[in-house]
Amino acid sequence: MERIKCLIVGSGPAGYTAAIYASRAGLAPVVISGLELGGQLTTTTVIENYPGFIEGIDGPALVENMKAQAERLGAQIRMGVVTKTDLSSRPFKIEIDGSSQVEAETLIIATGASAKYLQIPGVEEFKGSGVSACATCDGFFYRGKDVAVIGGGDTACEEALYLSTLCNKVYMIIRRDVMRASKAMQERVLARENIEVLWKSSPVEILGDMSGVTGMKVATASPEDGEISDREINLHGVFMAVGHHPNSEVFTPWINTTEEGYILTEDGGVKTNVEGVFAAGDVADLKYKQAITAAAAGCKAAIEADRYLQSL
Questions:
Q1: Among 131, 214, 215, 256, which has the minimal tally of Cβ within 10 Å of its Cβ?
Q2: Average pLDDT, the chain
Q3: For residue range 85-136, what is the model confidence (pLDDT) as tens digits?
């Protein structure tokens, strides 16, 4: 059975940065790509908030650059999905694609978190060209335009408030007649003049053409009799704020997580409850979910993996 010093699961900024640092430390890392090669960055067109790119860079291009850098330094990138794990003892046993198995002396989990998207017409068609799940990533492209945020929790409020500083108008589409967000966040949203909350409303369809999103069909219940009526809103961007799903299931028999599945790390770092196993990026990040913070965590995880091996 193949034995690997440092196995990295996930091929986003966290995984590739970990591979870069692990390679430079002489750990001969192997990266298992996962289903979403490159992670969420591949669904983003132009990234303007990642340092070093004056004019910005396409998400897929940034990921490809990271991959090429990791490979140049000696990392092996393998296509595949981890389907089973045994982290009860070292070396850890990792099953890939339901068939092959490897042993790992250290393991870095960088599987990310997948944004939840509503399953309504138009979402898949316009994902990346008007439909997004990250206002801080893509909000800049809608400066001076009308957009909508779907959701009523703290994240949705944060997205709406951020977008309100850039956009002409922000609609918040909320299914109930109350928000789930904290009272302070609700007050901030309701006080912002260019945010309009559509209560008891549900998105029905994302509308658009070759240029991208042009509007959204919304079903709203009448406050008087509850009768449902449809209306179309003209806008250019739709931001989903209905949560993220951390890709941690295959590790949860061994690794401590939150109720939502985010991996718990010691003191906000990268160490998990299992010695020799580290977590980096969105799979362990409930707060920031940015490419730069994921990359930083990948760096930390590789350094900690090296230190752990040296301590044995």
A1: 256
A2: 93
A3: 999 999 999 999 999 999 999 999 999 998 889 999 999 999 989 999 888 8
Question: CA nearest 113: which of 261, 231, 5?
Answer: 261
How many structural domains does the chain have? 2
Q: What CATH number has the domain bearing residue 266?
A: 3.50.50.60
234 and 249 share a domain?
A: no
* Structural domain range at position 148: 123-240
pLDDT tens digits for range 240-264: 998 888 999 999 999 999 999 999 9
CA atoms within 13 A on the CB side of 210: 0
Q: How are beta strands 82-86 and 113-115 bridged, if at all?
A: unpaired
User: Do 67 and 204 reside in the same domain of the chain?
Assistant: no
Cβ neighbourhood burial of 243 (10 Å; 0-12, 13-18, 19+)? middle
Q: Does residue 138 have an active-site annotation? A: yes
Name the pLDDT band for 265 (thresholds 50, 70, 90).
very high
* Total-model pTM: 0.79
Single out the catalytic residue among 86, 97, 137, 157: 137
> What are 91's two structure tokens?
């070396």
At 225 the pLDDT is 65
Catalytic residue list contains 299: no
Q: Which of 224, 240, 256 is the last residue of a domain?
A: 240
**Integer Cα distance of 36 and 34 in angstroms:** 6
Would the pLDDT of 268 be above 90?
A: no
Q: Which of 6, 58, 138, 167 is catalytic?
A: 138
Which domain-ending residue is among 240, 264, 280?
Answer: 240
Q: Which amino acid is at 135?
A: A
Q: Which residues pair with 149 in a beta bridge?
A: 172, 239
Based on its alpha-carbon atoms, the radius of gyration of the chain, rounded to whole angstroms, reads 21
